[in-house]
Design brief:
metal ion binding; 42% helix; Aldolase_TIM; 283 residues; TIM Barrel; alpha/beta; lyase; nine-stranded mixed β-sheet
């Protein structure tokens, strides 16, 4: 079981700028919890995501001396990937590849065909630099634009990624559109068809829908889950104020109920939850 904590996703759409020292202190606390991976920041245009313009400064302040947690940074293009790959502390580069043509244009100003070409170049870069590329299939459970979606579409995208040697693919519920009926078939079919790939679930939920979504993905074989403490955040390019990230505390609760060890330091997690409430207070 791998839990990926995503403070980057929680912060990126936040209107008020969170001071660099506040971000750094919060992330250092999250590093003490024992998550598999920390999605800590992004190397994208500060005009697109002004909240994360200080990612390099935050990274410089992180204490990685005693943590087993690996760092992941989101990139939107090859230039961002080259920047991120220059930091030895960063293990994973994450790229959002939409299965919706409309959203790919909105999110990265590229067509799907152009994005796939860039993914190939990013994968070469990662292999050269000793990094791993994580591809998020955004709008992975449907989209509001009428673009084609079904498990076969996800399979087509995954075949292309598998051919490039990409080892981690996260199905991403960008707008909270998923239901158990749309979650179970893709995970069951993809995990059987592509045993070399580790499939993750990046689910956005309402407070009422989290359990059925986690249960569906878990029952279908998913063992990699993204979350954010407090369920804060989501995609600013496809915002719905009622739909946030999967709350990490709910993921932990579900796994405890299933008797699945999380390996987390629970007192450190409790302190991180307290800090999260302070970081995002008043919003």
């Amino acid at each position: 079981m791998k839990l990926i904590e995503c403070p980057r996703d929680a912060m990126q759409g936040w209107t008020d700028f969170i001071p660099t020292e506040t971000k750094t202190a919060y992330l250092n606390q999250l590093l003490r919890v024992g998550f598999d991976t920390l999605d800590f920041g992004s190397f994208v245009s500060p005009k697109a995501i002004p909240q994360l313009r200080d990612t390099a400064e935050v990274l410089a302040g992180l204490d990685l001396s005693t943590t087993k947690t690996k760092l992941l940074a989101i990139v939107a293009n090859l230039r961002g990937a080259e920047t991120a790959a220059g930091y030895p502390e960063i293990r994973y580069l994450g790229f959002p590849l939409s299965v919706s043509e409309t959203f790919q244009q909105r999110n990265t100003n590229k067509s799907i065909a152009e994005a796939l070409e860039e993914v190939a170049r990013m994968q070469e870069l990662c292999q050269q630099r000793g990094k791993e590329l994580v591809v998020y299939l955004s709008m992975g459970f449907g989209n509001p634009y009428g673009d084609p979606w079904n498990p076969e579409v996800l399979g087509d995208f995954t075949r292309r990624l598998d051919a490039l040697g990409i080892g981690i693919v996260a199905l991403s519920d960008t707008i909270g559109a998923s239901t158990p009926e749309t979650i179970v078939p893709p995970f069951r079919e993809l995990t059987a068809a592509f045993p070399r790939i580790e499939f993750g679930a990046h689910l956005h939920t309402t407070p009422q829908s989290w359990r059925e979504k986690v249960e569906a993905a878990f029952s279908a074989g998913c063992r990699r889950f993204d979350g954010a403490l407090g369920g804060i955040g989501g995609c600013p390019m496809a915002a719905d104020e009622l739909t946030g990230n999967m709350a990490t505390e709910n993921l932990v609760l579900y796994l405890q109920e299933q008797g699945v060890p999380t390996g987390l330091d629970m007192p450190a997690l409790a302190e991180a939850r307290r800090m999260s409430a302070a970081v995002f207070a008043g919003h």
